[in-house]
Amino acid sequence: MSGKEYSVTGFIGHQVGVTAGVLRKAFASRITRSAESISPEQFVVLARLSFGQGFNQNEMGYLLKDDASITRILDSLEKKGLAVRKKVEHDRRANIAFITDSGTALVEKVFPVVEQLDASLLEGIEADQIENVFMFLEKLRENAIEYHNVIIPADQKKPAGIRNENKPLCQK
Length: 172
Fold this sequence. Notes:
The protein has helices at about 10-35, 40-50, 55-60, 65-80, 100-120, 125-145; strands at about 55, 85-90, 90-100. By secondary structure, the chain is mostly helical. The chain has a single domain (about 10-155), classed as Winged helix-like DNA-binding domain superfamily/Winged helix DNA-binding domain (Arc Repressor Mutant, subunit A, Orthogonal Bundle). It has a 3-stranded antiparallel beta sheet with strand order 1-3-2. A hairpin with a 2-residue loop joins strand 2 and strand 3. The longest helix is centred in the N-terminal third of the chain and has 23 residues, at about 10-35. It starts with 11 loop residues before the first helix and ends in a 25-residue tail after the last helix.
């Protein structure tokens, strides 16, 4: 060994990853307290399905690590009666997932808790700082996609999360 010490703490990927892990744990604890039968990943998929028009698995792939995860989550949500998949007429291999009334009720119950968590995380941070973070993260995603051959369909380069696009980033 060269005796040189190596540290990743100064790398943006490390800092974003550590922060993402902490946020994931906070999100998970709030979700499980509000709805014992659902995981945070299941909630994210349900929230996306709540847009109403139905989505195929490829359209939801960016929400989680891989299509297999989406398949497992949709299987679980179907068993719980929170989502349903319907065959696509022109492609027998494809399914479109929709939220059920029970799924919608669960999202309506849990979403305010998620909004409350989001608001508490943003306390003391100015709206322009929040907007800058969003722009920074978008550029970081774009760079990862462009420079490192991360393949993400064009319509998924700007993930639509659970934030209401009509809601201001920060309310004071």
